[in-house]
Design a protein that fits this description.
Length: 353
């Protein structure tokens, strides 16, 4: 591949075998080209909007234009807050909706600068340069562009990150890609509306109600546990193993803190006691609580809970007096529960797992 001053980029090579010269027809992938035009043109508008909102210290540091997205790196000292980013996105879209014609001219370099064209790569320009104007944006550029800004259709930011000290990166989408993104968001909102039985314009109010109800339930549960009322444990069974009382039960709670409160209540004023709770809620869990006297003998809850959870393919950890583990395969929780007395007996004897 080489650059030819008259032909542009030339891809050349050598055939090892004889061949008959034939005509070659080159075709442009029109949909792909249109998407690249939209995304490339958007870099001009976003550059203008960034400088207009953040300040003239913003300078392009690099870019990527692809059919499905654009990426723009620029100098700026800190992350852009969501409200400011929305302002920049709105400004870009206003320039799109103005449907400014995109004008291309070739001018002497100094004349282009006098016109107000932005040129940040001075070493790349010759005596004559290509000036692209779209509304208030004037830049030196040799790329492919839309005929008018309105052809971009819609502009949406998709991400913002930092790539180096003092350099920020935004990614964005335009045209069909932006439309599909909006459609996907609307589909998720519609699904959420169905799940919460609320109209889209009432979703925020409905979520606030759910959070308020959750807070009340958590307060009631905490008060219940504090008062010593029966906790959310069912299907309890008690075993006597070498002088240690083993209690095995089922809990509906997915909240480790809530189960920890149950464990603390179980341990309070008790000796030679072990509590094992299984939960089939969510991804499933196993919890173990051990009284202080057993901990003093070197029997720790973390070791025990891992031995039991291993039956169902799970593992975990925690404090010596209380530990939790993921269940692994939730369908194997019954097998883990059935094996618990035998595992506790082996654990109490100090046998290897």
């Amino acid at each position: 591949m080489r650059r030819d001053p008259e032909r542009g980029t030339v891809l050349s090579g050598v055939f090892d075998e004889p061949f008959e010269p034939t005509l070659v027809e080159a075709r442009v992938d029109v949909p792909r080209r249109r998407n690249i035009e939209r995304n490339h043109s958007a870099t001009h508008l976003v550059h203008y909007a960034l400088r207009d909102v953040l300040g003239t210290h913003v300078r392009q540091q690099g870019s990527l234009v692809a059919p499905d997205r654009l990426r723009f790196d620029f100098s700026h000292h800190s992350p852009i807050d969501s409200e400011t980013l929305e302002t920049i996105e709105r400004k870009v879209n206003e320039l799109v909706w103005e449907n400014f014609p995109v004008e291309t001219r070739e001018l002497p370099y100094q004349e282009a600068l006098a016109l107000g064209a932005m040129a940040f790569f001075a070493e790349k320009y010759g005596d004559t340069v290509r000036v692209v104007t779209m509304g208030p944006s004037i830049e030196l550029c040799g790329g492919t562009h839309v005929r008018s800004t309105g052809q971009m259709g819609l502009f949406r930011f998709s991400s913002q990150t930092g790539v180096a000290a003092g350099v920020r990166r935004i990614e964005a989408i335009t045209g069909p890609g932006a439309y599909e993104d909006v459609a996907a968001v609307e589909a998720r909102i519609s699904e959420l509306s169905k799940s919460l039985h609320a109209r889209p314009d009432h979703l925020v109010k409905r979520v606030d109600q759910i959070l308020e109800e959750r807070a009340k339930l958590e307060a009631r549960l905490a008060a219940m546990l504090e008062s010593g009322a029966p906790g959310p444990v069912s299907d309890e069974a008690v075993f006597e193993i070498n002088g240690v009382a083993l209690t095995v039960g089922q809990t509906l709670s997915e909240n480790r803190d809530e189960v920890g409160t149950l464990a603390d209540r179980f341990r309070q004023g008790r000796q030679n006691g072990v509590l094992i709770l299984f939960s089939s809620a969510g991804r499933g869990a196993v919890h173990a609580a051990v009284t202080d006297d057993l901990v003093a003998q070197g029997r720790k809850a973390g070791d025990l809970v891992n031995r039991i959870a291993a039956v169902s393919g799970g593992r975990g950890g925690g404090r010596p007096v209380f530990a939790s583990a993921g269940a692994g395969d939730i369908n194997k929780i019954p097998a883990a529960r059935e094996a618990t007395p035998r595992i506790v007996e082996s654990w109490l004897k100090g046998e290897e797992a």
